[in-house]
Amino acid sequence: MKVKIITCIYSDLSSLKMGGRTHRKDHYRFSLLSLMKMSQADFLCYTSEREIDDLKQFFYETHNISKERLKFEVYDLTNSDYADVLNPMKGAPSSFVSDRSYEIQYSKFSWFRREDKSYDYYFWFDAGLSHTGLIPDKYLSGNGYQVYFESSLFNDKFLENLLNFAEDKFVIVAKENSRNYWEGTVDPQFYEVYDNSVHIIGGFFGGKKELWDQVVDTFDGYVKKILPIQQRFFYEEHFMSLMYQNHKEWFKPLSFDIWWHEDNHKEGTKEFFEKNKSFYKILEELNG
User: With the CA atoms of 96, 215, 113 and 49 taken in that order, what torsion angle do they form, in degrees rounded to the nearest 10?
Assistant: First the structure.
């Protein structure tokens, strides 16, 4: 089975007023390096003209990553597939600059349309997914700054189990959103049956290539319908949550309750983590 993982690194968008978190340059690079321990997958990383040479130096020369396994492609986010709907919104009274770029969030889906579909499976993984905020110390290693991002949980066993779990469904990751509330959602009118008890996250998702078109088209339809009506921005996760509730038969969720783990939630008790499943437990289970 041929597997392709799509991701991106744009680490300076906050200075361009496109959103995006600050001071994440090394975070994204070392995290992606950790994700690449899924050695049976090929990677495509979108980036900007500003960063591509530096990224090639880091991965190809400093860390000897094969150019066949990791390809970089320049993509101008200012001309994304959603520029026509996003740009007018930026002048609306309710608009704001998020610490997450909407251009990136929505492109996680539209980038699939650029693929030749020569792989059997496609997955999106956030480049910065592997980090100490989500993963406890027992699964981290490395030297210097890298120790915060180098995790043993991403490997070929993880990838193999992810494929086996997927079967003929599109894999998504679902956070419990009632006892441990995290996010609101779009207007209930867009739900066939309103339900905000589950919040779908955008950290990683995917499945067989045949499943992607209907997901991408549905996501695209929601964005272009809902944003002009509600006149406010929504994360890609809000549309993913809506899509999950309206089309549950398409998806196979990996579920968790809380983001925190035992090493970054010192106020927590043993009972708290016994009652609630941390995000990293999903990664741990896929290593079983």
Answer: 30
Name the nearest CA neighbour of 198 among 174, 180, 222, 173: 174
Cα–Cα distance measured from residue 64 to residue 12, given in angstroms and rounded to the nearest whole number: 25
Cα angle 131, 134, 138 (rounded to 5 degrees) comes to 80
Read off the pLDDT of residues 197-256 as tens digits, 9 standing for 90 and up: 999 999 999 999 999 999 999 999 999 999 999 988 899 999 999 999 999 999 999 999
Domains of the chain: 3-285 (3.90.550)
CA distance 277 to 259: 8
Taking the mean position of all CA atoms in its chain, how far away is CA 52? Answer: 21
Contact 65, 59 (CB under 8 A): yes
Distance (Å, whole) CA 198 – CA 60 = 40
Residue type, position 160, single letter:
E
